[in-house]
From TrEMBL:
Keywords: Kinase, Transferase. Residues 246-432 form the Carbohydrate kinase FGGY C-terminal domain. Belongs to the FGGY kinase family. Residues 6-197 form the Carbohydrate kinase FGGY N-terminal domain. Pfam families: FGGY_C_2, FGGY_N. It comes from Parapedobacter defluvii. This is Sugar (Pentulose or hexulose) kinase.
Length: 454
């Protein structure tokens, strides 16, 4: 008997993964790849689009050769703020520009001066001003800096939809990508922002498909459906929405730590926008209030600094347990440095010679990161009836982080949620009915409760 499966491509900035899930949503096959970045015409690093395209096809060929599996559907989840400019045949016309690419100040000024100022645009599009991370701004830039390229663009596809096109042969936009800090969507009108029409950008955007829509495949194989793809942060939320109906906040931790509250429907305030809050889009089209912190990235950088100072391996922290004594001692310190702008923890300014051991310095780092996390998460909890916090991703496995987070939210129930590959499972669940006749499993997510220790 061949096992019915869904194939999910989960494309992160660093790791590109392919999973096969059976009807119980258990992983029955996985494969991982990393590609060396290439550079765009300005010498800035960018995704190697050709390697990614070939990898999708190679992986599918490999999966279809496996006689033990029957592939019934394929879907995609990928990082946001990344556009692939394609011609009518779907061939890329330009590099996949990196969302960290610096944005020209004069052009940014021109845009906001034309459309009512930064505050107004940010408020209406539920997105802070983030330069290239506002993917709509990448298109605006292309129009003015590379008009010949702009003319040739048939569609600008967000990365998940480009990957879907490779297999379905059809080009669509999806709400989870459009609604994710792009500056393209007017949340008050529930339509594209007026600038998208004024600048002719609308002609470069493919028709919108729903997140649970399934297309026939053009790639050889037999009769499987293809999802239109999802933005990874929105996909990671789906298993939680399916599993829990009491209000919750999910802190999805990776390079970015994103607090997502699907139960907070208050409009974003100016202050929240200035503090890196935004709205993501639920795969069924409703806004999800979110707050972002670059904490995973900061953790990575500071762990290297600690390791070098103490002559230890960078990975040593993985085996560290939570020490209440160290935390109590560190809490007695007064008048340390303050976080920088609410975005970078105090740890960057700390002198490592003040700590006797690696363990002490590492506990201090996590305390500083959790101080910031508390502020960031509180922003999306305010105004809603949430009583539970779930943490998934890298920090959910870090007992120091989890204990300190439980202390930071004494009035909440705090859980480490362990779920193999929430983003990939979410992309599979979004099109559940297209490939799976069984009811949704009720054991998708394992929870571990962390009690507050006064």
């Amino acid at each position: 008997m061949r096992t019915p499966v869904i194939a999910i491509f989960d494309v992160g900035k660093t790791n590109k993964k392919l999973f096969l899930f059976n009807e119980q949503y258990k992983i029955v096959f996985e494969r991982s790849a990393r590609f060396t970045e290439t550079v765009d015409e300005d010498g800035d690093p960018c995704e190697n689009l050709e390697s990614l395209r070939l990898s999708v096809f190679d992986s599918l060929h490999e999966v279809f050769r496996k006689s033990e599996f029957e592939v019934r559907a394929i879907n995609f989840a990928a990082y946001g703020a990344s556009l692939v400019y394609v011609d009518e045949d779907g061939k890329p016309l330009a590099p996949l520009y990196n969302y960290l690419k610096p944005y020209p100040e004069a052009l940014q000024r021109k845009f906001y001066d034309t459309y009512g100022g930064e505050d107004t645009v940010a408020f209406v599009t539920a997105s802070p001003v983030l330069g290239s991370l506002n993917s709509g701004m990448q298109l605006y830039r292309t129009k003015y800096e590379k008009p010949a390229l702009f003319e040739r663009i048939h569609y600008a596809l967000h990365l998940p939809q480009y990957l879907s096109f490779l297999v379905s042969g059809q080009m669509y936009s999806d709400m989870t990508s459009i609604g994710c800090h792009t500056h393209l969507w007017d949340f008050s009108k529930n339509d594209y922002h007026e600038w998208v029409y004024q600048e002719g950008i609308i002609d470069k955007l493919a028709p919108i498909a729903l997140g649970d829509q399934v297309l026939p495949a053009s790639f050889p194989g037999n009769g499987y459906g293809v999802g239109v793809g999802l933005h990874d942060s929105s996909a990671a939320l789906i298993p939680y929405l399916v599993s829990f109906h009491e209000p919750f906040v999910l802190i999805s931790t990776g390079t970015w730590c994103i607090s997502l509250n699907p139960f907070n429907h208050t409009p974003l305030t100016k202050e929240e926008l200035e503090s890196d809050c935004l709205c993501y889009m639920h795969y069924q089209g409703t806004p999800v209030k979110a707050s972002r912190l670059f904490a995973g990235y900061e953790h990575e950088q500071q762990v290297k600094r600690i390791a070098e100072h103490f002559g230890q391996l960078s990975s040593r922290y993985r085996n560290l347990g939570y020490s209440r004594n160290i935390v109590a001692k560190l809490r007695e310190e007064k008048n340390g440095p303050k976080p920088i702008g609410g975005k970078v923890s105090a740890f960057a300014q700390r002198n490592l010679s003040d700590y006797r051991t690696y363990d002490e310095a590492y506990h201090r780092l996590i305390m500083d990161l959790v101080d910031l996390q508390q502020i960031a998460t509180q922003r999306v909890i305010k105004g809603s009836s949430v009583k539970r916090i779930f943490v998934d991703g890298g920090f959910s496995k870090n007992t120091i982080y989890m204990n300190l987070l439980a202390d930071a939210f004494p009035e909440m129930e705090v859980f480490a949620a362990s779920m193999a590959q929430a983003t990939a499972v979410g992309a599979a669940l979004a099109i559940h009915s297209a490939w799976n006749n069984r009811p949704l499993p009720n054991d998708l997510i394992e929870l571990r409760f962390y009690a507050h220790n006064p």
